[in-house]
Structure formats: C-alpha cells, structure tokens
C-alpha cells in the first residue's frame, strides 16, 4: 500500500531550490515596485478623497464595535462566560487533535457550513495541521458572531451592522487567504518554485493599475466577451432615446404576436443585458420566441452632466416616456410592464403616479426581486445611515455621480468569500487567470449613478422607507401604492442578498390589487435568469393568501425547474389576442441604431 505520509511530504518539497530563491527575489522586487507606485499615487486628489472616505468608514466601524463593547462592559459576567466557552472549544480541539495524532479515530469539533468552498481541498481534512488551523478559525469566527448576537444593550440596526462587519473581518482572516496556511497554495508554490507568486504579483499590479490605485479584482477574462458580439445579441433596434435611456424594440421570431406589448424596466444600478446574456440564458430572447413584442429600457451610463437628474426624472424621462414610445411604435393604447430590482421599485412608484393621474395604460405589472418596503432590506442597510450618507453625498458632490465601482464593491461585499476572497486566492496566490464567465463580465461592467438620484433613493427608500409609508413625493404627487390596482406577479428568490425574500414578500402587501407571489430557488440573478431548458433549481407557488411569509412558505407547493412557464401562464390571459408580428420601424418611430445600442457600451472605467 502507498505511504500517504510519504506522498504528503513529497507534495511539500521544493522542486528546484535555486529557481525557488530566484522567483522569491522577483516577488520581492515586484512587491517593492507596487508599493512605490501606490505611494506615488497617495498625493493625488482622488487618492486623498478616497483616503478621507475610508477613514470615515473605519471610524463608523469602530463606533459600531465600541457600542458592542459597551454592552459587555456593563455586563462583564457575560463576556467571561463567552470567553470560557471559547476556551472550552479550543480545549476540545486540542484534545481531539492529540487523540488523532496518537492514532485514534475522532470527529471534528466544528465543520464548515454547507457550501463553504474555501475548504474544499482534501488536505483541509486529511492533513492534521491544516485541519487544526481550519477548525481553530471556524471556532473563533463563530465565537465572534456569538458575541454580537448575545449583546443586549444595542438596537437591532447596530447589531445588524456589527454582524456584517464581523463577517467581513473573519472572512478576510480565513487561513485559506494566506499562502502558508492554504494547502493548495503551499503545494503550488513549492512545486512551481514560486512561479505562481510571480504571476500573482503581475496580476495584482494589473488590477491596481486598472483601479487607478484602488484594487479592482479581475473576476473573469474580459477579452472573451463583447457587448453586441457574444453578449446582448438578440436582434432588435433602438427606436427611441433621450438623455437618460435608449428604448430597444426586439425583432419578432414568430408570425403572430400577442396584441399587448411588453415593456421591461431594468435597474440602472447595472446594465440591462443581464436579461440578454447569451441566447441560451436570455429572458429577452425567450420572451420574443413566446410571441411577445418586447421593449427594454437601456439606461444611460451618466457622467457629471447628469448630476442633477433625480428619481422623478427617471420616472418621467425613463418609464413614462418609454410607455408613450411603445404606444407610438405599436399603435397600441396599453401594455404590460416588467420591473427588475430597483427598476421594479421605480415601476411601482410610476404606477402609483399614473394611478393618481388617471393614466391606465399599464394593464399588468411583473416585479422581479423588487423591494417597495425597505424595513427588511437586508445587508445593504449596513451602508445606509445618516453619517454614511453624508460621507457618500460629499463624495458624489466632487464628481456629480457615484462611481460604478463603489456600488459593485458593495454588492461584492455581500458575498465576499465568493466574489472577493476566492479571486484573491486564485489570481494572486495561485497565479491563475480567472475563467471566462459571462455573468461575471456583466458584474464587472457597472454603471455610474447621478448624485441626485442615488441620494434620493437611499434616503427615501433605505433610510426613511417613505414609499411604503405613502410619504414619497414625485413631481408633486404623493406616491400611494394602494392606488395601484393592476394585477401583479411578484417573483422573489430564496437566497437573495440584495432584495431579501422577507422584503420582496411585502410587495403584494403594499399594492392595492391582487398579487401572485412566486418564490424561486437561488439568488438575485440566478433565480431570475433561469431558462426552462436548463432544468435547474425549482420554484414554489401558493394560491392562497397568507399574512406572513412563514405561513405562505408552509402552504407552498414546490415545482421543478424555472418559474418562466408559470409566468407565461399568468400573463397570457392579460396579453390579448394574437396579431401579425410587428417589426421595429413598422409603427410611428424609426429605428435609430441596431440593438444593443450605444448607451450600454459606455463603460464606467
């Protein structure tokens, strides 16, 4: 039988000591170059502004932890109990580790959560040293979260922020993120004579240059994709445009189409082509193939010239002008509408505005992972309080917009192990290029946001929750969601980090008409972009009303696969009879350019 210990020792031997030393010298030289380059950027206005913003953010984090510490200062016995539990677990770990060293079969004291991919390498379990490091880390990470949970003197918002900050800290300190304590990285370093670290430093340098002094981690092969070439390729034309948006009408693929057209309002926080990634994943293409005349808003990537464009402008020049343009393009007096994420939030507000004005052109509304009541808005609330908003508003005032990377970073932090630290390990420690993945290309193609719009959105929705309270005012109209009587389809997802299920559930409670709730598996993107042919995930329905999400889930029926066919069954009776297919340019608006248009191609770099 092979000697496992001998094989393990072989794995951790330097292949060529001389080459190893030369490569480590190259790593040190490149580290010095990067440090010098970083130091040279410190005196720039942008760097000083970023430093000031970061200093205020660190001060905010410190205040949060100070609040937690004060709670334990007032109850020292609770802290002593927590410390005793920690040392008890460490004692258990030492005991099981010694037993294992002596040849006894022992089980782990603690195990990673299901789906935690940081410790997937077999050595995290098979090698006693790495197993000990892993378990010691997991014990400490759970203890830190318990400290937050057991504090009795802080309000829930402070506790929520502390949870988030502890998560970020413990995620960063995972032994998987360091070369000497990650078995895969250590093996690769020794077997390649540290060539992986040489490559990793090159990647780090490139990412710092791409971020102009800030770290912009490369998540995919950017050269593998191009908007209009192999992403966002469903045929169509831009048939209307203004300062804020282009309106795309897609070419039909069926001889007849439903009479009532369909308008999609995507979020402006990122680009619309998440709904048209490629023909196999494209919701837009699938809708066209089902016989819908599909229109999609493609929002502008704004610069300082649009700094004062506000939420009302996005309603008026975005949704309302698109509704009118659809009517001119098709000759129809009414339409159905779909809003995704913040596009759904804007859609709901617009429908309330239209209801107040007696405008009934929209006959049904579909909301995809949308929030209108932000009381349970999840971890994004950790970025929103008065102090942080003032800091953000000062930052936006310097340029007139929020830089696209700022919002992308916030979203990445919601899943930092998957979207940050896994790439730190892959790109910088293992020295590998990230794989080509269209979804991550889209994720790394963010948009800027006008200062006025973003400030209004964060204050009115996240900070003060005025939309759900009927206190938001747009163009002189108080937005009352109860006036929205059109039938609604509300799609929420179970693992959504951006629009949590508990928050999206409330859409139907805020609107004044009948709402069909459907819950899909997975998260904010994969739960929505889930074509039937993929046969992935599942979804749940419940035809009975329920006052609480828990009651709704308890009575829900699980169905395999995508929610798309369920939505088609719901929308078909509301889509009208079949009529001859309409082509872009057939109606009252002439095509301007081919889809996907020019607005979506403007990058926020």
Automatic annotation (TrEMBL):
TM segment ranges: none
GO cellular component, one term: cytoplasm
Gene Ontology terms for molecular function: acyltransferase activity
Localization per record: Cytoplasm
One BP term from GO: poly-hydroxybutyrate biosynthetic process
Source organism superkingdom: Bacteria
Subcellular location, principal: cytoplasm
Matches recorded under InterPro entries: AB_hydrolase_fold, PHA/PHB_synthase, PHA_synth_I, PhaC_N
Pfam annotation, one family: PhaC_N
Keyword terms of this UniProt record: Acyltransferase, Cytoplasm, Transferase
UniProt KW Acyltransferase keyword: yes
Region: Disordered, residue numbers: 578-597
Domain called Poly-beta-hydroxybutyrate polymerase N-terminal: residue spans: 116-287
Keyword Phosphoprotein: no
NCBIfam families xrefs: PHA_synth_I (TIGR01838)
PANTHER family: POLY(3-HYDROXYALKANOATE) POLYMERASE SUBUNIT PHAC, POLY-3-HYDROXYBUTYRATE SYNTHASE
Protein name according to UniProt: Class I poly(R)-hydroxyalkanoic acid synthase
Gene: phaC
